[in-house]
Amino acid sequence: MTVDTLAPPAPPEQLTPPPAPRRPRRRWEDIRAGYVFLAPWLVGFLLLTAGPMVASLYLAFTDYNLFSPPQWVGFDNFVRLWSDPDYLQAWKVTAVYVLVGTPLKLAAALGVALILNAAFRGSGFYRSAFYLPSLVGASVSIAVVWKAMFIDDGPVDSIQQFFGFPAGGWVGDPDKTMPMLILLAVWQFGAPMVIFLAGLKQVPHELYEAASVDGAGPIRKFAAITIPMLSPVIFFNLLLETINAFQVFASAFIISGGTGGPARSTLFYTLYLYFRGFRDFQMGYASAMAWILVLVIAFITVIFFRSSRLWVHYAGDEGR
Amino acid sequence: MTTRAITSAARSTARRGALTAGAILAVGSLAVLTGCSGGSTEPAASADPDEKVTLNFAWWGDASRAERYEAAIDLFEEQNPNITIQTSFASFGDYWTARNTEAASRTLPDVFQMDLAYLAEYGGFGHVLPLDEYLGDTIATDAIEPSLVEAGAVDDQIFGLASSSSTLATLFNGPLLEQLGVEVPEGPLTWDEYDDLLAEVSAAGASSDPVVYGSLDYTQYFWLFQIWLGQQGLSFIEDGELGFEQADLADWWSRSATIHESGGAMPAERQAQFEGVDALGAAEIASDISWANFLPRFSEGPAAPELSLAMPPYDDEDNTGMFLKPGLMLSIGTNSEHPAQAAAFIDFLVNDPEVGAIFGMSRGVPASATAAEGIEASGLDEQILAYQESVADKLDGQAPPAVQGLGTLEQTFVTISQDVAYGAATPGEAAERWFAEAENALK
Asked: Residue A152's pLDDT is what?
């Protein structure tokens, strides 16, 4: 044994101190590569979404019938909107759909999510089965089938006669077309349900156990633990479903046969916008309608976000 | 830096450079490939007989008309092996929203059916080609009545060629009436007599299965309204403006309440269920007022009714308000790449005697005498022909001129009259709404 073996090991290659930590600056090549890859989407966004939106904002102040050049009319279109009975009817119909349909849909989603949260045999299958409608629900074929279910002597009519309710398809009855459409919306509860399920699984078990120890019943547990812990998910779903409900078009168009329903009972805002634009050649008017819809949805979104401070708990928030 | 660090840094720069280059290449090829898919070629001025050509053809109508068109197209493709025709059809309302969208994007079909309702817009705004250069040449017009050819004109240029003309008629299901114990009307009826007849039928048919009604709510029929206006001595359009008052329209729509109350008209809820099937063809109503040439369509309905034709109701024999409506015009989209072949196809559809034989009278009276020659009028065709001949000297009315906004007015008329049928609007309110629309549409 020599003294050498007791000598300290050879110094590692990087004995020189590492450069002083500084904020990593992206190299231009990286940024450039990023933009190049992003380019197709960016081009599409600018040409197909942002550009037309700006054009539509301009058109909202014009009289444009698609064929001759637009003529500037200032706020005329917006003024005309408020004295248009069909316009007010469109708001009424859409408001009913949003205010009734969305809460019902979310209630169904939450309810079924609670049931499916307890993993029983086959819960995976049911999860997929309930999710399926929300994948296909907005399609034309489903709307056609849904309508066919509700005509005279159709399946729904037969069932309601069986239970002693008066006979009559729902399609022709102005009072029943909205419930029919709301049912179609509620049937597609699968997507929010899956999100609720994910949220439910994140609620810590200890909270429920502690509550049981304190003698809380299931309802108390639901109200004091589940709902507050789920509130971010509820907020997310509520916001998204509300925005989507304002934009429903395909099902309303198909089920009303492209007319806005018997006696304007399915004259949704988007449907009326379409009629004005493509049936009556009043593109300026339709653009004005479109921008009002954007503003209303934006306003509602802002209200949601502001109010969320009051009722949405995010995990990690200190006390309340 | 150490050697290893230097080399790895150099390699990563080179890799980044390669990445960027690859990205640019990918994006560039994407752009080129998407550009390759669409492609417009200069439309040929004259038809090259050896060129393989595909034409798009669209029409509105029901399944029976579709069958006949397909048969005519098969014939055309046999005679012109280099031309293939791709077809599409829809109901009247859906058809026009589709065409309007296509007009905006300049993707109209090469040949498509045109109507007075939209002739002014499509012709006036240059969405369809003027046919003048083809008329008398590729499209033979010597067998067509000049006034019918002129009917497709906007500002002295012909934008659509009428393939037929038609008139309204009242269709009665004789056997059904007898079955219900209602007297089949012998001669023409007045409006009130017709309403009474409808009420009688509904009363007798209430116990049938399915329930039989007198008719549909005829106040929804835009063209019957035209006839009624003529009978009142009014015209729809006069000097570019509406030729009648709100009160007149309210009078017309107040007839709706009468026939609904008496039960003569099928309830609106029931009527809404009929899609793709006609109530008359399903024998759920015993009479209807429609185009005389729809006789084959109704007769081919699920209940195969035996129908007879009579004139629409009128109160004054000298004032029937009836007119010939130029129908099923054919136009060429401006964006067509093969206008010459499209013109040849139009000539075929309008003039060919075999096409005349295929359609019989189901389009109406053929505009072209050569097409009419091909018809061996038998059965239903004979009935229609006989009817047309019987009313030929009673046509004292006029079809409204093709004005911009006519299509919108027609559609709004139908939509608002639905509200009246449901009782959701009074005739006065409905008339007010329609007039407000008309003000906007006609400017």
From this structure: 84
Q: How many residues does chain B have?
A: 443
At B279-292, the pLDDT tens digits run: 999 999 999 999 99
Alpha-carbon distance of B360 to B346, in angstroms, equals 17
**Could you tell me which of A85, A93, A150 has the C-alpha nearest to residue A265?**
A93
Distances (CA, A) of B410 to A275, B274, B400, B413: 14, 20, 12, 5
CB-closest option in A29, A66, A169 to B16: A29
Beta strands in B265-341 (DSSP E): 287-291, 307-310, 325-332
Q: How big is the A-B interface in CB pairs under 8 Å? A: 94
Q: What is the domain class of B168-322+405-441 according to CATH? A: alpha beta
Residue in B16, B408, B422 nearest the CB of A279 = B408
pLDDT at position B38 is 42
On whether the CB atoms of residues B213 and B284 are closer than 8 A, the answer is: yes
Q: What number of other Cβ atoms are within 10 A of residue A112's Cβ?
A: 19
Asked whether the beta carbons of residue B103 and residue A152 sit closer than 8 angstroms, the reply is no
Domains within chain A, CATH numbers bracketed: 28-72 (no CATH), 78-311 (1.10.3720.10)
Residue span(s) of chain B under CATH 3.40.190.10 come to: 53-164+325-385, 168-322+405-441
* CA dist list (Å): B239 to B26, B93, B133, B242: 61, 27, 30, 8
Residue by residue, DSSP assigns B221-233 as -HHHHHHHHHHTT
Question: What residues of B are in contact with residue A279 (Cβ under 8 Å)?
Answer: 96-97, 100, 408, 411
A contact set with B (CB within 8 A):
13-14, 27, 29-30, 32-33, 36-37, 39-40, 65-68, 85, 151-152, 168-169, 171-174, 257-260, 262-264, 274, 278-282
- Determine contact, residues B112/B58, Cβ cutoff 8 Å: yes
Q: What is the mean pLDDT of chain A?
A: 88
User: Hey, what CATH topology would domain B53-164+325-385 get?
Assistant: D-Maltodextrin-Binding Protein; domain 2 (3.40.190)
Round to whole Å and give the CA distance between A254 and A248: 11
CA B226 – CA B323 distance, rounded (Å): 9
**A145 has pLDDT over 60:** yes
